[in-house]
Specification:
This protein is α/β, with parallel strands linked by helices. It has a single domain, classed as Queuine tRNA-ribosyltransferase-like (TIM Barrel, Alpha-Beta Barrel). It has eleven helices and eight strands. It has an eight-stranded parallel sheet with strand order 1-8-7-6-5-4-3-2. Helix 6 packs parallel to helix 7 and helix 10 runs antiparallel to helix 11. The protein starts with a strand and ends in a 9-residue tail after the last helix.
């Protein structure tokens, strides 16, 4: 079973947490928002599994490595994602080498390395480095590489992203690149029905995923259908972190979370969302 986390506004943190398997923290919000920080500190004290992200998707560049190390050691998450560089495999490798050479991180937390690249060969090179040289505990693969638009061209870019990651993972398995003995994390989501493809045992090396997709769409009043979605709201969850959520919006969010869980693992929590 793939572990699922959904980022959410602070106002419904507890309701969303009740229906997810772990929590996913954005480091820049820990620094900016004391209430947000307190929610994650409480989760960690309670024994909840937490991944600390370097906020590259939100900031479009990774959080400063030294400052990120400070936060890793302050909250001591279960896992943390070493600062990487969007689609730049060489810089991502250099930053991981620098992180390791400086001895950064907290030894009690699992270290996650992100695969980056603009071509299949770059992605493979970066993957092999993370797998064989970087001493990481988990490898992460993103949902929106521009490579997907080349490998699976489609008029709808979200379909390209969905099918592109499915194809990439299949190609990496075909070429015997994937280390099935190491856990993997899937970063983000274009279309939720993507995760129907990972239900069989060929993908039991996928440990976890994170996405705010069901939450953002629920707040926007967009309900997942039986086939998922064919479009995606572009708003990022961190921009909604302080938003109040009505009962009607919460019902939509919880419905989407249930549906997303069914797409991913073929089951959903028992909860009345109507």
């Amino acid at each position: 079973m793939i572990k699922i986390a959904h980022e959410s506004p602070k106002s419904i943190f507890n309701e969303v947490q009740d229906l997810t398997d772990y929590d996913y923290a954005l480091v820049h919000l820990l620094e900016e928002d004391d209430e947000y920080l307190a929610q994650f500190q409480s989760a960690i004290r309670s024994g909840r599994e937490v991944i600390l992200d370097n906020s590259i998707f939100e900031l479009e560049e990774a959080f400063d490595a030294v400052n990120f190390d400070k936060w890793v050691n302050k909250i001591k998450p279960s896992w943390y994602i070493v600062p990487d560089a969007l689609e730049d495999y060489r810089k991502t490798i250099d930053q991981m080498e620098d992180w390791n050479n400086k001895g950064l991180g907290y030894k009690g937390s699992g270290k996650i390395g992100v695969v980056q690249g603009k071509t299949y060969d770059e992605i493979v090179d970066c993957y092999n480095y993370m797998n064989k040289e970087a001493d990481v505990d988990m490898i992460a693969i993103s949902f929106d590489y521009s490579y997907y638009n080349l490998s699976v061209p489609h008029a709808n870019k979200y379909v390209s992203w969905m099918l592109g990651r499915i194809k990439l993972l299949g190609d990496l398995m075909r070429d015997k690149v994937i280390n099935t003995e190491k856990p993997h994390h899937l970063l983000g989501c274009g279309l939720p029905q993507e995760f129907l493809f990972y239900k069989n045992s060929n993908y039991d090396w996928i440990y976890s995923l994170d996405t705010s997709n069901p939450v953002v769409h629920g707040i926007k009043g967009i309900r997942y259908g039986d086939e998922g979605l064919w479009d995606k709201e572009s708003q990022k969850l961190f921009e909604m972190i302080n938003q109040d959520v009505s009962k009607e919006q919460l019902h939509q969010v919880l419905n989407n979370i249930n549906k997303f869980r069914w797409f991913t693992n073929g089951q959903a929590p028992v909860v009345n969302v109507f």
